[in-house]
Write a structure and sequence with these properties.
Elements lengths: L2 H41 L4 H28 L8 H5 L10 H6 L11 H7 L25 E4 L5 H11 L16 H6 L1 H6 L5 E5 L2 E9 L2 H19 L11 H11 L6 H6 L2 E7 L7 H16 L4 E7 L3 H9 L3 E2 L10 E7 L1
Parallel strand pairs: 4-5
Antiparallel strand pairs: 1-2, 2-3, 3-4, 5-7, 6-7
Helix pairs in contact: 1-2, 2-5, 2-12
Length: 350
């Protein structure tokens, strides 16, 4: 067979397989929406005793199905390396090659996979050691409110910046702190992620719009180098350094810090937590399963790219954010010899 003809047939087969994948992803998205509709109908059922009995189970199933759909939507963007299979091989599931046939053939006992359908779906994600993120407490009062997690798009920037402003003061609204420069705090805290690492960024939406975000960079060292070489010079140009004064405004203090900032990460931290993460949700998101699912999405994307741990930076005095990340399983990583004493490093592996 001529080489060119062989290449053409291989390309055609590859295109056919890719199209089949996208068709299946679209069908799964339709099935996810069907689960949403069923969940919505259940919450409005007149038989409230039935609702109370079924709600926790359906709520749990809806959450894990939505989480899987979020991961599939991220995969559809093609931001996965060819070596992904070496990173995500883990627990066998009903869907693993050969297991379904063995089960149906009677070679396996019915209880070979524990936890029921919910646990089976959870095992489809490349997250074998983050079971705490799948422990969700249903709302005390049945609610039809649905939060959707999806990959970040460039059109989301203004909304994500707004979330950052409304959560920058230790999780509280800091909009009034920088009225004359509304983008300053977001430029400093998350602008680098959205510009240099958008492929690992997710947003949370409800019926009112975007209400949270989860951002990450795969290799923190490389990200900080890019931050220093590309993003910080742009910010310094955008925000000229203020003159010397003993009475700087909060905005001027931040601008001054931009001109003197030298990003770095301790080697001991990078060794166990090579990726960096930043999450935030509006105070209106009272369901804590939302940030858990958001973090699971980010970690699944990082794991698919070969990472096994991540850290975040929190100011020493930010008690709300320390509690927030603590509930998500982050622990303080003792680091010596850092130049920024007011920062704490929190990390977790996955």
């Amino acid at each position: 067979m001529p080489h060119r003809l062989r290449q053409t047939r291989q390309a055609t087969a590859s295109h056919s397989e890719a199209q089949e994948w996208f068709n299946r992803a679209a069908r799964f998205d339709d099935q996810t929406k069907a689960v949403w509709r069923s969940f919505h109908r259940l919450t409005h059922c007149r038989n409230r005793a039935l609702v109370c009995d079924l709600y926790p189970y359906v709520w749990d199933i809806r959450g894990v199905v939505c989480l899987l759909n979020s991961y599939v939507k991220w995969l559809a963007l093609g931001r996965v390396p060819q070596t992904v299979s070496t990173y995500v091989q883990g627990t066998f599931t009903w869907f693993s090659k050969g297991w379904k046939e063995a089960f149906l053939g009677g070679d396996q006992e019915p209880w070979v996979f524990r936890g029921g359908l919910t646990a089976e779906l959870q095992r489809l994600l490349p997250l074998e050691s983050v079971n705490d993120l799948f422990i969700w407490k249903p709302p005390d009062v049945p609610s039809s409110k649905i939060f959707t997690i999806r990959p970040y798009l460039p059109a989301d920037k203004d909304a994500v910046y707004d979330i950052c402003r409304k959560t920058c003061d230790d999780g509280l609204d800091g909009t009034d702190v920088f009225p004359e420069l509304p983008d300053l705090i977001a430029d400093k805290l998350i602008g680098g992620f959205l510009t240099l690492s958008p492929e690992l960024s997710f947003v949370v939406e409800d019926e009112d719009g975007i209400c949270g975000y989860g951002l990450a960079a795969l290799d923190a060292k490389q990200y900080l180098k890019k931050l220093e070489m590309a993003w910080l010079p742009e910010l310094c140009s955008k925000y000229p350094e203020p003159g010397k004064s003993d009475m700087l405004s909060p905005a001027e203090e931040i601008i001054s810090s931009l001109h003197s900032y030298k990003p770095s990460i301790p080697d001991a931290l990078h060794k166990l937590h090579p990726s960096v993460i930043k999450l935030s949700c509006l105070a209106t998101v009272s369901d804590f399963s939302v940030p858990k699912r958001l973090l699971a999405c980010v970690m699944a994307a990082l794991k698919s790219n070969g990472s096994f741990g991540a850290y975040c930076e929190v100011n020493v005095g930010d008690k709300n954010m320390l509690e927030f990340y603590g509930k998500l399983g982050f622990l303080e990583v003792p680091v010596t010899g850092t130049s920024v004493e007011e920062l704490l490093y929190l990390g977790r592996t996955f």
